[in-house]
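<goal> How does this chain fold?
<sample>
Here is the protein in question

***
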Amino acid sequence: MKRKQEKPAYDRIAAGERLRCRRLELGWSRELVAERLGVVNKYYADIERGTCGMSVETLINLSRLYGVSLDTLIYGEKEKQSPVSQGEQLMRGLDRMPQVVQDYCLRMLWLFAHGYASIIANNSLKYDEETINSQLQQAYRGAILAAQEETAEYETVKSSSDSEENSGSED
């Protein structure tokens, strides 16, 4: 009779360390994570230290917040990253942001993709790493410039409409 391969036991200290590493990797504070989870800071700090366990609900929320599987959080199993899961993680991250930030991020992504497409159209695409990095940097600079132009245009329109509103209210 074949025995099923058993998963390693749950280790609260190791799980807490994985959570701490992921939080630091994202550049988040403990306070921010606790707030997003809807728990008090001390409770989340205790989870990271491994001095207390967590509910299934908290575990699921951490998995969603950090964009990692439950197996990764509980057992430390490495996930295979595929382009689809990276895209899903990006969309999950965007979903947690205010709509105005989502719109700006998507616009920047579009500008970057559009700039990269035009670079490729003007030059034949070369597949060596140095050329691709150079092309990506050029597309990034183009996206930043386009975003700065759009922001300046928006500020000009906004300030002229504010001026019209203010001059109209003085009458």
